């Protein structure tokens, strides 16, 4: 295939290195334009201050600068991609549009519409695997079935990788950069946040590193402690995890590079159990992407249909309990501190995502979809597949989920994973006078040291019994 000119459409792959669609376009075309579209069908639904929009905005500035360094240019548009992409392709007179796969049902529908519009105008649409190592049906069971349990999926994933390490090879851009279309003269300025109708969030104040350079900086820092990851990752007051999830979400890093680095460490005999466990987490990410691809009904419904028969709490009392959970005033310090971490920073530690999700579902009896939607609005790293997988895990309705009768006790979780109460004190300074024994269940403290803290919204032991009754329905055979 030799094309006169083509257009690369960046979406959740905001980088200019090891980029499949960009490299393929450069190899196939004499001239390559690049575009990013601020998608109004997504942006119009968001509050006017949104850390993710800030993150994208800063990351796009870096992509534009990097492309310019290479002699190219980033076209930036604001609108509905379904209209914008075919219109821009016509305006530039390109023969093809290149992009990387997106596995979310809405994104796939969008891409199909763009593809049809381009085809109708005699143009091609090429899309590639880029955001995962293995996608769709690439990892199947020995009998050709889709996995619904993680461990066998992971084993098959690792086996497939070991059989062909070439899937990790980088897709270099620089050697082909001379084919990037140069900037127009004068080059238009990038839109400001205000042009997009947004106000700055507290992203800069939080010092969350953005763009390709931010991802590289975080990864470099993480590599110095990856060997401790298997232990440190469970304690929210410890700098244990990588904090790279927002970068995985927006593709400011290359997953191939991440996996290559881990394998290199393992080959050199460094990284230990920490590197192996971290690799497992990257495989969880691909597992959930694969589940969403094969079972799109999980958006809005339980993976296991029997769980849709559960009757959740509704009405004013449930609404008030939900508001208490959202605002971090359930009276359970670890749950409240975690929700405040989410509200104030857009990040929540993985252990706490599990604890807060279980608390909402199994202590408050509230439909997991309400929690899922709240996380979707507030998480910087919100990813439909991982978020849905995490919530269905907690509600026991998903694949390889926690059995429904295993119910986290929010107090013992707190004692175990924030024993000293360090994380709790960071977000709930009104509890700072409580001892490390008292801080996990302040209502039991003999002294009234925290008068401005909330009483518990439910008693865990009673809630647990109600939940076991509520879940009885999943044991009934379908009518
Ligand atoms: C209820 C619930 C909701 C969640 N929602 C999201 C979400 O919207 N977006 C998201 O990226 N992760 C989600 N997770 C998974 C996990 O909590 C985050 O990926 C992790 O906390 C991000 O922090 P990190 O980058 O420091 O992770 P690290 O521990 O450094 O892990 C490295 C990377 O592996 C991936 N990963 C780690 N754990 C998981 C997991 N359990 N499932 C899927 N991928 C994983 C992420 O891409 C992460 O960045 C959710 C988990 C739960 C229980």
From TrEMBL:
The record marks 312, 368, 391 as: Electron transfer via tryptophanyl radical. GO terms for molecular function: deoxyribodipyrimidine photo-lyase activity; DNA binding; FAD binding. The lineage of its organism: Bacteria, Pseudomonadati, Pseudomonadota, Betaproteobacteria, Burkholderiales. Keywords: Chromophore, FAD, Flavoprotein, Lyase. The keyword Cell inner membrane does not apply. FAD binds at residues 229, 278, 281-288, 381-383. SUPFAM superfamilies: Cryptochrome/photolyase FAD-binding domain, Cryptochrome/photolyase, N-terminal domain. Binds 1 FAD per subunit. The keyword tRNA processing does not apply. Its cofactor is FAD; (6R)-5,10-methylene-5,6,7,8-tetrahydrofolate. Belongs to the DNA photolyase family. This is Deoxyribodipyrimidine photo-lyase. PANTHER family: CRYPTOCHROME, CRYPTOCHROME CIRCADIAN CLOCK 5 ISOFORM X1. One of its GO terms (biological process) is response to light stimulus. Transmembrane segments: none annotated. Residues 4-133 form the Photolyase/cryptochrome alpha/beta domain. It comes from Duganella flavida. It holds the Pfam family FAD_binding_7.
């Amino acid at each position: 295939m030799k094309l006169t000119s083509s257009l690369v459409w960046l979406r959740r792959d905001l980088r200019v290195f090891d980029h499949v669609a960009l490299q393929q376009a450069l190899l196939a075309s004499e001239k390559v334009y690049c575009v990013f579209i601020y998608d109004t069908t997504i942006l119009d639904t968001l509050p006017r201050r949104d850390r993710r929009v800030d993150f994208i905005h800063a990351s796009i500035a870096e992509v534009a600068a990097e492309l310019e360094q290479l002699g190219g240019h980033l076209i930036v548009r604001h609108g509905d991609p379904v209209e914008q992409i075919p219109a821009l392709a016509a305006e530039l007179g390109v023969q093809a549009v290149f992009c990387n796969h997106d596995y979310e049902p809405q994104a796939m529908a969008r891409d199909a519409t763009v593809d049809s519009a381009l085809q109708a105008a005699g143009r091609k649409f090429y899309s590639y695997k880029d955001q995962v190592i293995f996608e769709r049906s690439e990892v199947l069971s020995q009998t050709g079935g889709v996995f619904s349990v993680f461990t066998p999926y992971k084993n098959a994933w690792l086996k497939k990788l070991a059989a062909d390490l070439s899937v990790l090879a980088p897709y270099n851009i620089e050697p082909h950069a001379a084919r990037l279309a140069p900037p127009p003269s004068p080059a238009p300025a990038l839109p400001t946040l205000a042009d997009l109708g947004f106000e700055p969030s507290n992203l800069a104040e939080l010092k969350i590193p953005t763009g390709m350079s931010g991802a590289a900086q975080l990864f470099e820092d993480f590599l110095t402690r990856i060997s401790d990851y298997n232990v440190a990752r469970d304690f929210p007051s410890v700098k244990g995890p990588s904090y790279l999830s927002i970068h995985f979400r927006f593709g400011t890093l290359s997953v191939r590079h991440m996996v290559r680095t881990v394998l290199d460490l393992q080959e050199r005999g460094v990284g230990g159990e920490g590197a192996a466990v971290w690799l497992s987490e990257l495989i969880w990410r691909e597992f959930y992407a694969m589940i969403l691809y094969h079972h799109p009904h999980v958006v809005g419904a339980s993976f296991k249909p029997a769980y849709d028969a559960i009757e959740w709490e509704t009405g004013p009392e449930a609404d008030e309990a939900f508001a208490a959970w959202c605002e971090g005033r359930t009276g359970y310090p670890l749950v409240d501190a975690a929700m405040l971490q989410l509200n104030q920073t857009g990040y929540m530690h993985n252990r706490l995502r599990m604890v807060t999700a279980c608390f909402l579902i199994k202590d408050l009896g509230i439909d997991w979809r309400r929690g899922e939607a709240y996380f979707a609005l507030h998480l910087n790293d919100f990813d439909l597949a991982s978020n849905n997988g995490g919530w269905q895990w907690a509600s026991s309705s998903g694949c390889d989920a926690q059995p429904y009768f295993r119910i986290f006790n929010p107090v013992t979780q707190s004692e175990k994973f924030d024993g000293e109460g360090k994380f709790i004190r960071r977000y709930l300074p009104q509890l700072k006078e409580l001892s490390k024994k008292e801080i996990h269940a302040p209502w039991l403290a003999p002294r009234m040291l925290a008068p401005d803290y909330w009483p518990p919204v439910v008693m865990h032991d009673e809630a647990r019994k109600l939940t076991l009754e509520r879940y009885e329905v999943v044991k009934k055979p379908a009518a």
